Amino acid sequence: MKLVIDAFWRAAVYCLHPRVIALSFLPLALMVLAALGLGYVFWNDAVDFIRIQLMGWAWVDWLGQWFSSLGLDGLRLVLAPALLLFAAIPFIVVASLLAVAMFMMPAMVSLVSERRFHGLVRRKGGSFLGGLAWSMGSTLAACLALLLSVPLWLVPPLVFILPPLIWGWLTYRVMTYEALADHASVEERQALLAQHRFKLLGIGLITGYLGALPSVLWASGAMFIAMAPVLVPVAIWIYTLVFAFSSLWFVHYALAALAQLRRQREGAGPVAAQAEHLGDAQLPAPGSAGGDTSS
User: Fold this and answer.
1) Who's near 238: CB < 8 A, 6+ residues apart?
2) What's this model's pTM, rounded to 2 decimal places?
3) How confident is the model over 77-124, as pLDDT tens digits?
4) How many CA within 13 A on the CB side of residue 171?
5) Sign (positive/negative) of CA torsion 142, 148, 154, 157?
6) Residue-range domain boundaries for the chain
């Protein structure tokens, strides 16, 4: 746990570094432009489609009558936009994670390596294409898990448990590979994953729950719908900061664990060589009494 806590505080401090702050605006700008552009093109058609689909549902009529009895007729009008925004949350989270991993993670690895691990040899066990395939495969698995778990979101406690768990697992998969791709060999990465799997997964789960903070904005109801053009970029900015912090946390932890692994192996090398030498010395020499009894 010492490595986990040490990496946490170092990541928090590094978030204040000017280079980190500057780099965070690139994925933020791309995500905001993409969200606003897609919203401008598809928002009205998507809302109309959802409203048409909801017309045949009895529970929607019951919910509308209940809102009317409470004097909240306006909530009936925002039901379809609210459902559309909730449906977009997983895609915004995944896109934010991938944008940070693609545009910020290499710079984070270089920054931490230059300032703290400048003597750590880069063994290039990963590649851009390998990382892309790893990230895409993990993302598809996470999206499938999200889709399969959607019916369970109707159970109030599970909607606050399942999505962060899935996002945390995805964060762990993507960030661990990117943090070790440049410095660790394939064998070292596999060894570290086997040795530190649960701690790395724990870091991913914590950051997954930190990524649930923008849910406060989504939960603001009709106010959020009215202020969506302003609050959506704010929510994306929060996601970007969370994943930027998580990338630094993973980099500090992974590179420290890699340095520790190499020190252990280098320390075991002379011991193993000495044991081998002693073992050879104990063997009887050819022609000795112990080695040849024919004379």
Assistant:
1) 213, 214
2) 0.75
3) 667 777 777 777 777 778 888 888 888 888 899 999 999 998 899 998
4) 35
5) negative
6) 2-40+85-265
